[in-house]
Design brief:
- The chain is α+β, with helices and mostly antiparallel strands and about 425 residues long.
- It has one domain: Outer membrane efflux proteins (OEP), CATH 1.20.1600.10.
- About 65% of the residues lie in helices and about 15% in strands.
- The strands form two sheets. It has a four-stranded antiparallel sheet, with no helix packed on it.
- Strand 5 and strand 6 form a beta hairpin.
- About 30% of the residues are buried.
Amino acid sequence: MASAYTNNPDLNAARAELRAIDEGVPQAKSGYRPRISVTGDYAFQTTKSILGTSWSTATNPRGVSLSVEQPIFLGFRTKNSVNMAETSVRAAREQLKLIEQQVLFNTVSAFMDVVRAQVVVNLTTQNVEFLREQVRAAKDRLDVGEGTRTDVAQTEARLSQGMSDYAAAVSELNRSIATYVQVVGHKPAKLGSINGVEKLVPSTLDAALAMAQKQHPAIVAGLYNIDVASWNVRISEGALLPSVSVRGSVTHRDDASYKGSWNDSAAITGVLSVPIYQGGEVASNVRQRKETLGQRRIELDAARAEVRQTLISAWGSLDAARAVVRSAAAQVSAQQLVLSGVIEERRVGQRTTLDVLNSQQDLLAAQVEQVTAQRDRVVAAYGLVAAVGRLNAQALGLPVTVYDPTEHYDAVKDKWMGLRTPDGR
C-alpha cells in the first residue's frame, strides 16, 4: 500500500491535476493587479507636393509608449473569483482523497487476489501429488489382483483434471500478479497476512453512518461544489454592475510631423463603464449558473444517498464474509475427517476408489472456498473503511511521506510572475 501511495500513476496524475487547479487562485488575484505594456513603432514615410514649386520629404516616424491600467472596481467580480478559485481548490482536495481511497482499495484487492491465487496454486499442487499417489496405489492393487482397471482409469482421469486445475490456477496467479504490478508498480516481493482495519470503523452502523455523512470526501466535495457554483452566480451578476479603472500612459515620438521633430506626452485617465444592455447574454449567464447551482445541490443529495447505501452494503458484506469464513473453516475441518475416514474404509473394503477421489475433490473445493472467504473478509473490511471515508495513508499509518497539497498551494497562491513551477520545471 505504501508503494501504491507513492508510485500509482492514477494517484500521481490526480495530484498533478490538483496542482493545476491551485493556479486558479493567482489567476483570480491578477484582477487586483495592474496591466503594464510597452509598445513601439517605426515607419518610413515619403511625401511629395507641388504647390508653385515641387518638393519632397522623407521621414522615419517612430515612437515608444508605456501604458498602465489599474482596475479599481469590477463589480465585485475579482473578489468573488478569488473566493471561487479557493473553494475549487478545496473541492479538488476532496476529489484527490476519493482517488486515494480507490487506489488503496484496489491495492488491497490486488494483494489479496495474489495471496488467494498463490494459495490455490499450492492447494492444486498438493492435489496433484495426492492424485499421483492414488494412481500409483491403484496400479499396485491391480498388479496384486486387488483392484480393477476401472480404478486405475478413474484415478488417471482425476489426475488429468487435477493437472488442468493446476494450470488454470497458475494462469489466475499470473493475471493477479499483472494486476498487482499495474496498481502498485512492481511485483510482490513477499506475501503475508494483512492487518485488519475494523478498528477504524465505529462499532455500530448508526455511528458509522454519522461519521460518513460528516467526513466522507464525496460529501465534503459536494458541499464545496455548491459554494463554487454560488460564487459563479455572483461573478455573473457582477457583469451587470459598473466598473472603474485608471489608465496611465507616457509616449515619446520622433519625426511625427517633419524630419527632426519630436514630442513627449503623458496622460492619466479615469474610466467609468456602466453596462446598460448586453443583448441578454449576461442575464442568460446568470440564469444558467443558477441552474447549475441547483444541480450541485441535487448532486449533493445523491452523494449522501450513495454514501449511505454503500456503507450499509459494505457493513452487511463484512458481516456475511465473517460468517462465511467461520463456515468454511468448519467445512474444511469436516472434509479432512471425511477423507481420512473414507481412505481407512477403502482399506478394509467398505469404500471404493471413486469414494476417495470424490472426498478429495470435496476437500479441495472446501479449501478453495475457505481461502476465497478469507480474501473476501479482508477486502470487505477495507471496503467498509473506504465507505466511512477513512481509507487514507494517515488513518492506516502507512510508512510514507504523506502528500501535503498545501505546500504547492502556498508556493503559488500569491506569485506575481515567474514561469517555473515550484519544483523547477
